[in-house]
Amino acid sequence: MFLCTKLIFFLQMFNLLTMPMNGEKTEDATEEVKIEVLHLPNECDPKSKRGDLLNAHYDGYLANDGSKFYCSRSEKEGHPKWLVLGVGQVIKGLEIGMMNMCPGEKRKVTIPPSLAYGIHGSGKIPPNATLIFEIELYAVTQGPRSVNAFKQIDLDQDKQLSRDEIKHYLMEDFKKDDKPRDLAREDWILEDIFKKNDHDGDGFISTKEYNIYQHDEL
Ligand SMILES: *[C@@H]1O[C@H](CO)[C@@H](O)[C@H](O)[C@H]1NC(C)=O
Ligand SMILES: [Ca+2]
Ligand SMILES: [Ca+2]
Questions:
Q1: CATH architecture of the domain covering 20-141
Q2: Which pairing describes strands 53-62 and 106-111: parallel, antiparallel, or unpaired?
Q3: Any ligand 1 atom below 6 A from CB of 119
Q4: Rounded to the nearest whole angstrom, what is the distance from the C-alpha of residue 207 to the centroid of ligand 3?
Q5: Per-domain boundaries in the chain
Q6: pTM
Q7: Which residues form the EF-hand domain (predicted)?
Q8: Cα-to-centroid distance, 68 and ligand 2 (Å)
Q9: What's the pLDDT tens digit per position in 108-157?
Q10: Which residues contact 207 (CB under 8 A, 6 or more apart)?
């Protein structure tokens, strides 16, 4: 579990994961997400914000008949999900519904179709479906695209990431996992990182290209 989480964390640093629950893009801003707090812990720190890495369980129901279409507890041996908030990893309505949430908090979130799967639906979700999620948030931690993550990779501290720096970071990371190295795979990951992040093609990933959240100063 730990190793698996670590690798996922790394891949998320560079947007390499496919997004499993991408909702439909929509222009309809008239509909809103309804948030009911079911349990609020006495202590609320830190509150979730864009870019944070969250650990949570959530069950999804169709509002019209109450049937359950998704249950994170029945996946991956019941381990809670890790997700980065505000990067399109989950449907828009969930992103909104999980903002400013405390570790230990439970919410019931009602999401209109325009902020879920829209007029077409997807898989088990019928067209124009309003969704209800029951969310239990366990942990709010620093997200992958944080200043600290950037600084950790940027060995010479020139505020840009070179191929060598990322390669070094990748190597260290795989070493910790105690797995045999797979050079071809490492090269492929490195190429993919640059393809997706080095927008101006200068061979470095700048802080801007890395897209640090929260406008933290380096
Ligand atoms: C879904 O909603 C849209 C817009 O309100 C409507 O045009 C469409 O017919 C609906 N689809 C179904 C299957 O109800
Ligand atoms: Ca550097
Ligand atoms: Ca660049």
A1: Roll (3.10)
A2: unpaired
A3: yes
A4: 9
A5: 20-141, 147-215
A6: 0.65
A7: 141-176, 190-218
A8: 48
A9: 999 999 999 999 999 999 999 999 999 999 999 887 777 778 888 999 99
A10: 150, 159, 160, 218
